[in-house]
Amino acid sequence: MCRCARPEERRDFRRGTVANILYSSIVNGDSVAFDPAIDILFFDTNAINATAVGLSDASDYICIGFSVGGKAFSLPATVSLAQLTTSNVVFADSSRVIICDNTSGTTNDGLALPTP
Fold it and tell me: What mean pLDDT, rounded, does the chain reach?
């Protein structure tokens, strides 16, 4: 599902230091520049909630893939699933995706996982 674009195909949505990346501005197949420490991916329609979003982490760590509402797009390999939080992935309907310990740091993520 991850289709990481060549650098010249990537769309950089940055407007100053922090990028508010709107789902409505992403085109199917995009590879979106994203820094989880400062950027926000905003699903700007109430028609999409967190339970509708498909997330995949490529086994070869080439990118993170999203699929929702007929669009598939990816974030670069520099971003891990564990870095996605309720602060940097936001939904207009206030639903939430919570991964690991819900911080963009990955140090304590193992503590958030259930023990076998």
Answer: 78
Question: Do β-strands 54-57 and 63-68 pair in parallel, antiparallel, or remain unpaired?
Answer: antiparallel
d(CA 69, CA 62) in angstroms, rounded, equals: 23
Tokens 């598939």 belong to: 72
CA distance 19 to 50: 20
Domain membership flag for residue 74: yes
Q: Is residue 44 part of a domain?
A: yes
Tell whether 109 is covered by a domain. no
Closest CA to 55 of 87, 106, 99, 92: 99
Q: What does pTM read for this prediction?
A: 0.73
